[in-house]
Amino acid sequence: MTTLNELYQEIILDHYRQPRGRGELEPPKITQEGFNPSCGDEVILDLRARDGRIEDIRFRGRGCSISQASASMLTEAMQGKTLDEARALIQQVLALVKGEAEGDLDTLGDIAALAGVRHFPVRVKCATLAWHALDEALEQLG
Amino acid sequence: MTTLNELYQEIILDHYRQPRGRGELEPPKITQEGFNPSCGDEVILDLRARDGRIEDIRFRGRGCSISQASASMLTEAMQGKTLDEARALIQQVLALVKGEAEGDLDTLGDIAALAGVRHFPVRVKCATLAWHALDEALEQLG
Amino acid sequence: MTTTFTLDAREIRRQFPFFQPHSEMRSVVYLDNAATTQKPYAVIEAVSNFWAHHNANVHRGGHGAGAKASELYEAARARVAQFLNAREPAEIVFTRGTTEAINLVASSWGEAFVKAGDEIIVTEMEHHANLLPWMRLAEKQGAHLKVWRITDDGRLNLDDLERLLTERTRLVAVSHISNVLGTVNPVAAICQRAHAAGALCLVDAAQSVAHLPVDVRATDCDFLAFSGHKAYGPTGIGVLYAKRALLEATPPYHVGGGMVQIVRWDRLVWAEPPAKFEAGTPPIGEAVGLHAALDFIDAIGRDAIERYERELTAYALERLQEVPDLRLHGPIPDRAGIFAFSLGEIHPHDIATVLDTRDVAIRSGLHCAHPLGERLGGATARASLAIYNDTQHIDALIDALHEARRIFGRV
Amino acid sequence: MTTTFTLDAREIRRQFPFFQPHSEMRSVVYLDNAATTQKPYAVIEAVSNFWAHHNANVHRGGHGAGAKASELYEAARARVAQFLNAREPAEIVFTRGTTEAINLVASSWGEAFVKAGDEIIVTEMEHHANLLPWMRLAEKQGAHLKVWRITDDGRLNLDDLERLLTERTRLVAVSHISNVLGTVNPVAAICQRAHAAGALCLVDAAQSVAHLPVDVRATDCDFLAFSGHKAYGPTGIGVLYAKRALLEATPPYHVGGGMVQIVRWDRLVWAEPPAKFEAGTPPIGEAVGLHAALDFIDAIGRDAIERYERELTAYALERLQEVPDLRLHGPIPDRAGIFAFSLGEIHPHDIATVLDTRDVAIRSGLHCAHPLGERLGGATARASLAIYNDTQHIDALIDALHEARRIFGRV
Ligand SMILES: Cc1ncc(COP(=O)(O)O)c(C=O)c1O
Ligand SMILES: Cc1ncc(COP(=O)(O)O)c(C=O)c1O
User: Which chains have at least 3 CB atom pairs separated by less than 8 Å from chain A?
Assistant: First the structure.
């Protein structure tokens, strides 16, 4: 597999073409924007939490295949997660795209495809945009 | 003659130790200050002109041997000169210290000793301080 | 396609370590020249040589080494003055780059001369460097920022300028060449209209000095700024040209050593320009490098550079138009060698990454010109030329664009 | 005289082209290190190597070369943070030098946080770089500049500071080492007193970073500034350290590309620090050079440097005191290796020239500290040490001073 094919795996392009979790939530919700000024990538997360769990999560935005596919995967993976599970997953993904991943990738499902980003330092910001935004949103939840 | 002896010729040290033309004039007069901020050299010229001639000229100030000797020589040389002669002499001296002198140095008298400065680029400003000040003073005379 | 070229870029590349067989970069097709150019040996060696053999601080006399460093620094200033056809070296102020030069003007000249209710005109195509300083100044002073919109093909219309200019207009700020659209703006005509209305004109020449002759007297601009690193020189140095009388009237910017004559607790007397605007130890080694860079440019000749880059631009335009779904921004065909484009629905970031894996270096994003980016519909991919590029580089770009279309075919 | 030295300066000199047999400068006894230091091969080569092999612009992604340049640039920032023992790289802002760093603080922090009636304390020994920005700020804001006078032996007395500090004091600006007197100021104690009074403290470390360990956390200073070129690095780069919270609260300085997140005609959102303070293309090659310079320093070790320079200073003090009519300014014996002196009635400019003809490079004048110069009675001659100097250099200085006395004997 060339590094380019590893970056643009079919599963990534699929999430890019047919994003899951695209949309907005009705209030009550937490909204968090992620923005990459140099390229204009934008991800806006809408999040509703209840009883220490993510009840629903959606994203809007525009940007490259990596940032949008990554946001799509995030919404899919986060549905129903406890806040602690969510935080742990964020850390796992951040490590993954920087090539510092340890442990079992199989549990990650589609998200494991983001590992291809590790060969492309300039794209790490794209892949992590949504995840950093979620991290900030969770901080609002305390 | 080493370049150092050429710079610090006996005649220069003599003007430094026993400056001619040191002092102030009573008004009416033109006063012009010359100042070198990096080393603190200072020359203040007092000048009285009448009928297109320099009637009297004095200097005050403090600074290195070159700047003070040069001012001393200036006052000596300028007494009684017409304004045109003064301007011509200024140009001749500026050329001399930059090593661009042409023609007969003998007519310059003591001033010819300033030629030693041409080997010391960092000292050219010292040697020309009084002469630039006089140049500006003459501009005030129109 | 048969184009004849008036210059052999391979010859030029020999002068650059970047393109040598032993270089880690030798295989890179470098088309990001609007961001920064590569550096010829002559520049790198001039700087190394300065550090090794002539290094000293300037202006604060005492010893021969210091005198030599001062001489080299002032020779660089004189060289820039000659390069721009300024009246005298004192019209040249060394800064860190274009950004600092324009900040200097907006802060020091602007806060002294732009009052509440006054107007400043900027164009819609400006880089942030020639935009944010004016936005901030307008807000600080209560002045109005008026935006000179571009036409749909990315040009400026002089009639629009006439409608914007009023007796309250203090300054028109315009780039000579747009860093996105490649538009070459008619700066002499703009200065003339500005002057007729009693306004000054600042030209951002960051994208032009290395690519065509720039003559501040013929243009009659009041201020002009450029960066060394976009003109084959080092980072850390740029130039502000300003008419002497303006420099005299403008208060200092940074304050500190070297820009002051007398400092007493109760009294300050500034030095004369340009020293007045160069507080602290200046970029000495960088000035020496810039000097060498200007020598490099003039050794080829700015007319020759302009001609060759025009030929290569024509070739690039033709080949880019072959790529299906490629939408090129900016005027055609009359433009400089900067090509911002989009490719179907493929995001520019993805284009750049595909190209990068094929060793074609371009840039993607908003190119520090967000308002223009909004107007163009978001991020774009951008390829930009310099004197060492040739048709092979364009061909590699085109091949890689086809590859991107293959990968993202179904997007 | 028998002194034992803990370091062999000849070994160090081998690392500098300036001191090599083929150098045009080889015979120069360079004692003007407070103005600027010479550059080791490692620094010159790191910079050349960057230009030749890694040159690209930073931060504005798109290709691998740009990613590499960004990596090197941020690695330099991390290295500076570690060198100063900052909490994180984001506390390090790259500037052109000390002067720009202090101007940044005075303009951006100062105009936001210093109000009419507030007070700023500067010491009488400050360099213009740490004086003029505060004079200007005080005038602009209607604040009061209070001068912390020095003692007759060139020290600062902490009790005097206590008397100056009030609840209106916003900042104390002080140099770590005086560039004229060689005084090493007790900056940690000064910061502590300032903080106790509710004021901040800025340390001008231009003369200290290359000569003794500087630790911003141990000192607990709020701002600290230094220049690369006085620490074996290139010109065109300097550092502002500031506590994170201060950088966040402080408005931007230069505005332009790279320091902004969102630019709409009606809305600006700044980037986070340190990017917020680094508008435009930064000094990239220079940052790489500074990184190498800090590596050079730490390879010798700052404790070892401090110790050796203290030994050499002791030797120099002893030998200077042998010269009849020599009057040394500043504290004795506890001081750094910077020696400002006068010699009978011989003007410092004349001293420097005599020394220059004997290839001893020192400086004469007011050393960009005019108020201090007035206090000392005018211009002085100044010799200043670095790690490559040794007793031979001091001996050459002393011989040349005797020569100056012979020439000007009867003055
Ligand atoms: C104590 C001190 N502060 C500030 C400066 C200014 O440094 P720079 O000229 O590199 O900005 C100097 C050097 O001249 C200095 O000695
Ligand atoms: C048109 C234009 N103006 C200004 C700049 C800013 O130049 P610098 O980053 O060298 O200050 C650039 C380059 O980025 C530019 O393209």
Answer: C, D
**pTM for the full model?**
0.94
Q: Tell me the mean pLDDT in the region D258-264.
A: 92
Separation CA C61–CA D366 (nearest Å): 11
Q: Is A126 on the interface with C (CB under 8 A)?
A: yes
Burial of D75 (0-12, 13-18, 19+ CB in 10 A): middle
**Distance (Å, rounded) from C-alpha C341 to C-alpha D249?**
39
For residue B84, give both structure tokens: 């045109």
Q: Would you kindly state where each structural domain of chain A is located, as residue ranges?
A: 4-141
Answer whether residue D60 shows pLDDT above 80.
no
- C183 backbone φψ class: left, alpha, beta (φ>0; ψ -120 to 50): beta
What is the DSSP-derived secondary structure letter of residue C184? B
- In angstroms, the CA A68 to CA A89 distance is 18
pLDDT at A103 over 70: no
Contact C411 A126 (CB under 8 A): no
Whole-number CA gyration radius for chain C: 22
- CA-CA-CA-CA torsion sign (B22, B25, B30, B31): positive
Distance between CA atoms of residues D128 and D115, nearest Å = 22
Residue C280 Cα to ligand 1 middle (Å)? 7
Tell which residue, B69, B63, B76, has the closest CA to residue B33. Answer: B63
Tell me whether strands C260-264 and A53-62 are parallel, antiparallel or unpaired. unpaired
Are C372 and C329 a contacting pair, CB within 8 Å? no
Tell me the mean pLDDT in the region D223-248: 98
SS3 of residue C250 by DSSP: coil
Residue C95 has pLDDT above 50, yes or no: yes
How big is chain C, counted in residues?
Answer: 411
**What distance in Å separates the CA atoms of residue D314 and residue D404, rounded to the nearest whole number?**
23
- In terms of Cα–Cα distance, which of D291, D254, D296, D241 is closest to D74? D291
Position C200 confidence tier, pLDDT thresholds 50, 70, 90: very high
In this predicted model, what pLDDT tens digit does every residue of C321-358 receive, in sequence order? 999 999 999 999 999 999 999 999 999 999 999 999 99
Residue whose structure tokens are 């001996």 = D395
C-beta separation of C356 from D63 below 8 A: yes
Contact C239, C277 (CB under 8 A): no
Q: Which ligand is nearest to the CA of C128?
A: 2
What fold does the segment set B4-141 form as a domain?
Sufe protein. Chain: A (3.90.1010)
- Nearest ligand to residue C366 Cα: 2
Kindly give, in sequence order, each residue whose CB lies less than 8 Å from that of residue B51, ignoring residues fewer than 6 positions away: none
Question: Does residue D333 have a cis peptide bond before it, meaning omega lies within 30 degrees of 0?
Answer: yes
What's the rounded Cα separation, in Å, for the pair C126 and C139?
A: 18
Q: How far is Cα B56 from Cα D392, in angstroms, rounded to an integer?
A: 52
Q: Which residues are paired to D339 by β-bridges?
A: D383
Q: Are C288 and C46 in contact (CB under 8 A)?
A: yes
Separation between Cα atoms, residue D369 and residue D373, nearest integer Å = 6
- The dihedrals phi and psi of D83, each to the nearest 5 degrees, come to -60, -40
Instruction: Point out the residue among D354, D364, D378 whose CB comes nearest to the CB of B4.
Output: D354
Q: How far is CA A132 from the centre of its chain?
A: 8
Chain A contact for C160 (CB, 8 A cutoff):
no
Euclidean distance between the first and the last CA atom of chain C, given in angstroms as a whole number: 31
How many CB atoms lie under 10 A from the CB of residue B11?
Answer: 16
pLDDT at D359 over 60: yes
- For residue D213, is the peptide bond before it cis, meaning its omega torsion is within 30 degrees of 0? no
Residue C375: other Cβ atoms inside 10 A? 16
Q: Map out the domains of chain D with their CATH numbers.
A: 9-30+301-407 (3.90.1150.10), 45-298 (3.40.640.10)
Categorise residue D182: left if φ over 0, alpha if ψ from -120 to 50, beta otherwise: left
Tally the residues of chain A: 142
Identify the band that residue B60 occupies on the pLDDT scale cut at 50, 70 and 90: very high
